[in-house]
Design goal:
With 274 residues, this protein is α/β, with parallel strands linked by helices. It has twelve helices and seven strands. Strand 2, helix 3 and strand 3 form a beta-alpha-beta unit. It is globular. The C terminus is likely disordered.
């Protein structure tokens, strides 16, 4: 892993469209692409859909303005896809497919300003070991992963982001809202809104790093283990915040926050089938 290798990889691509969610990985890649190629050859694009919290959309706009990125939003239509709403193990495939279909016309030969550009995603080496069908969709559409090509892990991204003074260096992982809904439970606008409202309210209480997992009228709250006591101490306010979002019950997961932990249950089901 080296910044020289990453810069060389981005430079070799000549013209890129960066899928920019505002998380540590995509923000780092967008900054590097803009620094290496300049805004005329690097476009950052944020996918806007009901699964993107409004706070994250605004954060993308703020970063783009502060860093001088050429940036735009595209509205994606994954909620129109029955396979996405069904929320099986390939849900993320359909989400990424919707984004890449929107970006396709931008980079088509003979198109507009982005004709001939390569779509790049902030996938790092650590991401390759998890269940991430969205990576398959990206590869099928010809997108590439410069961080992987340059040997970057999540730690490397955060280390270099800190060295560069990027405020995203320690930003908690923030997957889409649909990732809070267990596989097999259909994704609906109402469920996404409930999760977003509950998480936003809990962040206002000081819990910046968390997940609210949706189980019908029960919300399962995950925070880092060292914050479990803080949730208990603020129990009344936490319960009120969760109920205001439409849930009847609030529970605290004593295992703490585990990003992508719903994949564990998926693994158990696949093992049982085998």
């Amino acid at each position: 892993m080296s910044m020289d290798t990453l810069r060389a990889r981005v430079r070799a691509l000549e013209h890129v469209v960066v899928a920019f969610s505002g998380g540590a990985d995509s923000a780092f890649l967008a900054w590097v692409a803009n620094d290496v190629l300049g805004p005329e050859r690097a476009l950052a694009v944020t996918a806007v859909s009901p699964s993107l919290p409004d706070a994250e959309r605004k954060a993308c706009a703020t970063l783009a303005a502060e860093w001088g990125l050429r940036w735009r939003e595209v509205v994606t239509d994954e909620m129109d896809e029955a396979a996405y709403r069904r929320n099986d193990a390939d849900r993320c495939y359909w989400c990424k497919d919707a984004l890449l279909r929107q970006l396709g016309p931008l980079v088509a030969a003979g198109g507009g300003d982005e004709a001939g550009a390569t779509v790049v995603l902030g996938v790092n080496l650590d991401d390759l070991g998890d269940h991430r069908p969205g990576q398959r969709a990206a590869a099928e559409h010809g997108a590439v992963f410069p961080l992987v090509d340059a040997g970057f892990t999540k730690h490397d991204v955060r280390m270099w982001s800190r060295r560069l003074g990027l405020p995203t260096w320690d930003k908690p992982a923030a997957a889409c809202l649909a990732s809070r809904i267990p596989y097999g439970t259909p994704v609906t606008l109402r469920r996404l809104a409930s999760v977003e409202q509950a998480e936003a309210a809990l962040r206002r209480l000081g819990f910046d790093e968390l997940r609210v997992r949706h189980y019908g009228d029960l919300a399962r709250i995950e925070v880092p283990v060292d914050r479990l006591g803080d949730v208990v101490a603020a129990a009344h306010a936490v319960v009120d915040a969760v109920k205001a979002a439409g849930y009847r019950y609030a529970t605290l997961d004593l295992d703490g926050l585990r990003s992508g932990n719903l994949n564990d249950a998926l693994g158990l089901k696949l093992a049982a089938r085998g």
